[in-house]
Amino acid sequence: MHDVTDRLELFRLMRASVRGSEKYLLVGVDVAKNNHHAFFGTPNGRTLRKNMVFDNSTKGFESLRSLARDLQNQHGLVDVVYGLEPTASYHKPLAEFLIRQDEHVVYVSNVAVAKNRAMLDGRWDKNDKKDAANVADLVGQGRCLYYDVPEESLRKLRSLIAFRSRLKKEEHALRMRLRNNVFAQYFPELDKLYIRAGQSDDLVLSIAQHCLDPREIAGMEYEAFLKLITPRKIRIESEKRLRKLWEVAKESAGCLVHDAARWEARSLVSKLKAVRETVKGNEKLMEKVAQQFPEHESLLSIPGFGPIVSAMVLAAIGNAFRFENRKQILRLAGLDLSAERSGKNSDSVKPVISKQGKAALRYALVQAAMVASSLNPDIRSYYSKLLKGRELERGIKLKMKVKLAAKLLVVAWTLMKRREQFKPSCFIG
Fold first, then answer.
1. Residue 156: which of 301, 358, 297, 293 has the closest Cα?
2. To bridge 357 with a disulfide, which of 6, 284, 333, 376 should be the other Cys (CB 3.0-4.6 Å)?
């Protein structure tokens, strides 16, 4: 298999020269779960074969390569480029198989495919045959992206981050089920305490698990209630909340609690705690894998970048040298600016971030910007300069933190390439 650097250089050369070229065979593939559709053509608009359906198997992949080689030899074409539209994870086996065979593989974005679809025949309908031709057409225009196949350790990290994202969604869903299905019905006052206490308040979960019924709480002495909820010594703030809840329980507006409701509450709490334990284990593994990369120390030195944010940035960027400029790295996170300027009001339209990139990375960077602008004096000074004279504008603080997040991402990318530690001068400069 070609070296990563060689593949990247070949991709850049192809994208710069493909439009109108006579030497490339373009294979556009519309990916599905079981069967894929392929279109064979050239950048100058010639159709060599409209449709080939092949299985999502090694045998099917070999038949695709075989037909591509036959058409390449028949028409005297120099190189074959396979273009894929990423659909869930269905495209990965085909892409990695082709790359292992030293084939040239690129991909096109889903947004580009959707916008280009009507350009082929003036219609908006979608089908597999047309989408394969659509993919090939985009590759022929040079509107394609480098298909990155990272090293094993980076794959592990990306897999762990994707798993963490699914776990966090599951955690949120369980919290909402507790709040909306259980607390709101049987103990509304507990729901209010849960909102103020935060996501990781074990005391609230302990109440739901041991004594959901406010009438049962009202019949206890406060010391017995406190001992039931937590045998350990707790902070004064937490004890004040629990005492207030014990007092409010005497006048709770909740419905009568039956055995089925108790069982549901205990089950949800058990699931939620199990998910949180899995998240903790996952994050430890993320940190362990991230430490294998020399760039990890550079990222950890950036204010606001803890182990999780550093691992997410590292996984998203991967090989820092595959990005040629800061615009590309900002597009990765959807932090690049865009605006629709046309008509009479074109001059008054202000650009906003595109939000077309990795949403989880963008969110993590904004959180890092919030921490950095609060704790680091140099970044706090920079943030204050961004706000100067605009303090009264609506939503300006969040906008400037998003701008700061974009700056932090560019700094992270730069430090990864240089493998240097963070300095205030490199951020402000």
1. 293
2. 333
